[in-house]
Specification:
about 20% helix; about 25% strand; single chain; alpha/beta
Length: about 120
């Protein structure tokens, strides 16, 4: 189980989990009631003085990314890459990395840790 995956939670629920955490704290959520065939399947919410959102897309081959070409076979690969590389390439307001997963303990305290990717 990943300590950053919150499952189908709302933006407001995500904000409640991330507010006041260190810059670079993040989680990944799915869109509640996401229609089949939707390419925007996940959102990375990250705290950087305020909450920011990065849409994650999935192509017809199952690869993930922020924009084409999608090169990550799994969400885990995407997270690992951006834990070492800055997000500024995709968002000029985010000169940070995915530094601090929200954590299993916090997710489970709020009832969100039951989900898996």
């Amino acid at each position: 189980m990943n300590n950053w995956f919150a499952g189908p939670i709302s933006r407001d629920q995500s904000r409640a989990l991330l507010t006041g955490k260190p810059n670079g704290t993040f989680l990944i959520r799915t869109k509640p009631n996401c229609p089949p065939g939707e390419t925007h399947t996940h959102t990375i919410d990250i705290w950087f003085s305020t909450m920011k959102h990065i849409r994650v897309f999935r192509d017809e081959y199952g690869a993930f990314g922020f924009s084409a070409p999608f090169i990550f076979r799994t969400l885990q690969e995407l997270i690992e890459h951006y834990s070492m590389e800055s997000l500024v390439k995709h968002n000029a307001d985010l000169p940070t990395k995915l530094a601090h997963p929200i954590g299993y303990k916090i997710l489970s305290e709020h009832g969100f840790a039951k989900f898996q990717t």
